[in-house]
Amino acid sequence: MSGEYHEDAELKEHKHPNYFAVYIALAAITALITIIEMMSHNGIINVPRASLITIYLIFSISKAVLVAMFYMHLKYDSLLYTVLFGVPAIFAVVFFTLILI
Prior knowledge:
The chain is built from four helices and no strands. By secondary structure, the chain is mainly alpha-helical. The longest helix is centred in the first third of the chain and has 23 residues.
């Protein structure tokens, strides 16, 4: 029985993501967050703090999604693993958002 599973697993080709492109995207998002914060702190841009926090949260969530999709291989795994990881993550975001309100 376990031999059949092993043979099936070998037949399934695993795609490898472009890790360098993901790294560049993560670095670019981090740079944007840093630049926006520095410009806001120095008075170059006048944006309400609540708006900045919303922007930072959106950037941070997008970075977390990139890491989960590519470095944790959730993009190429079964939908079950994505759901098992995604549902608790959504609950955590909702929970921490309610705490901050």
